[in-house]
Amino acid sequence: MPWERIESYSYWILFVATFLGVAVWESFRPKQELSGAPGRRWGRHGLVLIVCTVISVGLYLASPVVVAIAFAGNRYGLLNKPWIPFVVRCILAVLLLDFVKYAVHRTFHSVSFLWRVHQVHHSDPDFDVSTATRVHPIEVVLSQGAYFAVIAIFAPPVIGVLVAELVSAFQSFFGHANASLPGWAEKPLRRLFVTPDMHRIHHSEAAGEQCTNYGDCFPWWDRLFRTYLAEPAAGQDRMVVGLKGFQNDASLGLAFMLTQPFLPEKKEQASRIASAEQA
Ligand SMILES: [Zn+2]
Prior knowledge:
14 helices; mainly alpha; 279 residues; globular; binds zinc ion
């Protein structure tokens, strides 16, 4: 079977299975009560996902594996050198691609216009599995472009790219679960992977806490670059998620989510970066 087909099947099977698994988990043991009906928010966030998928597929006509195959012979690539053991190159590929996601995410928080685009993800009035798909198409296109560029430049092994993609697909839903791991599992697992409790802090309404825990799969970049925060100031049970001024039903409108980056900036958001720096 060609790599592209293996990628397509494995990605979408994992995508659906993880979404359903996390949805069942959080419906049995929700961490926070949702402010609205899950059906409505899941439907709206599903529409955003469809819009993003159509735009990014139509624009790039490529996937990470397709790019990896196309640039496998890049003579300047660092991760296609035969003198580096294959397993080492695969591990480096997974680490590199996760670091790219950390760096891109942090950049979206640091650059004014990019933050306006990324705040669509943060303006979700609640935090659950569907939050993972609430991403503005501009963010998807720019992030995907950066991801493809790194694959083209470093020429990592195709299998390494595929593993990174699958781990990220799983982690995206798992990390946005409106549920918590039991205490005995949270501590050791958080040393290896970003857990829902860790990523939820990034979705705190407190601006300073939004500038922490940027990691996608692995928590090591946050620890290395000192953006790791173990607990929110208000505690996990009392912390408020979302963006101040946007914690209402209107934030679930499809038109609102697609146009939010271009709407006049709210006062609270204008002062956000300044207050985050002071924190
Ligand atoms: Zn963010």
